[in-house]
Amino acid sequence: MDRSEFRQGVRDVVPLLLGIIPFGFIAGIATVNAGLGLPEAVGLSTIVFAGAAQLAALDLIGRDAPLAIIVVTALVINLRMLMYSASIAPHFQRLSSRTKAAVAYLLTDQAYALAIARYRTDDSARSVAYYFGVAATLWVVWQLTTIAGVVLGTSVPESLGLEFAVPLVFLALLVPAMEDGPTTIAGILGGTVAVVTAGLPLNLGLLVGASVGVLAGLLTETATEGSSNGD
Amino acid sequence: MATSYSGPVIWGLIFVIGVLTFLIRMSFIGLFGYLDEIPPQIQRGLRFVPAAVLAALVVPSFVTLEPGTGGVAVDKLAAGIVAAGVAWRTENVLTTIGAGMTTLWVVRFVLLPAV
């Protein structure tokens, strides 16, 4: 394991923690609100380890929703990870199955976003240690803040809007990802469609927006290739 | 809204969601080991995933409709615009966060109450 890459990952994830810490608190508090205790909170945060899905499942559990609905809701929310998995997989092709399983278990929005940004811009920096630096830090902080949410039950002053730090980090990563015409179109379309479909249930807007964005990027690339071939 | 599901049912639920979520995460990461080369068509599409996904994650956080009024949340929109400009000029995460949060707080706590 490349220690300096691991440390770089830990350093890069620190600003994101500003948003993760209140989120983890909320996941802990939601567990109590659903009528569950510390073991279930820890179980959810370690076994599922997916904030949005945990919150949705807890909300439905608290309302005694049918079990199948709870499972399907959580999975649909997590479907976006299929895209992360596909996008990041080429960088981890040569790893052992055991390491791949660890990579997959730790895959989150934040870990994906930071790692793909680094691997995309720097071909020499494909060390999985960087990914683990980011992802393991997120995991530890997520567990600690979930527990703190259950035990303390205090709410972070909501008006400060600390969770707003998370989209700001993603924004800083988005701008360089829009590196040419087709990727810019993919971003603009993906963002616009996600806003329009934000009202859809199950976080589906994200999935729809991202898919439309990828499709738009592909079409733009095909169209521009066609016209430059014609020249 | 305490649940009436029993302990074993809850734990079963946690395990089922956990295992299936892991399979979603593992899907392509596991699959690509068995392919010598990634099909070029898939590779082409994957190039657009970071921009499309990040935009779909980000933009709805900045352009959010105020509940009830139907208007746009001005503080978040302003913060998003300023942060986007700063991100474009600096490509620096911490500077972007600083600019975005400062704008959010200035608009939310100074400008909006004064209007």
Automatic annotation (TrEMBL), chain A:
Q: How does it sit in the membrane?
A: Multi-pass membrane protein
Chief subcellular location: membrane
Superkingdom, natural source:
Archaea
Location in or out of the cell: Cell membrane
Record InterPro entries: Brnchd-chn_aa_trnsp_permease (IPR011606)
| Keyword field | Cell membrane, Membrane, Transmembrane, Transmembrane helix, Transport
Q: Which PANTHER family match?
A: INNER MEMBRANE PROTEIN YGAZ
Family, similarity comment: Belongs to the AzlC family.
Annotated protein name in UniProt: AzlC family ABC transporter permease
List the lineage, top down: Archaea, Methanobacteriati, Methanobacteriota, Stenosarchaea group, Halobacteria
From TrEMBL, chain B:
InterPro entries linked: Brnchd-chn_aa_trnsp_AzlD (IPR008407)
Keywords assigned by UniProt, alphabetized: Membrane, Transmembrane, Transmembrane helix
Q: Where are the transmembrane segments?
A: 12-34, 46-65, 93-111
Q: Where does the source fall among the domains of life?
A: Archaea
What is the designated name of this protein? AzlD domain-containing protein
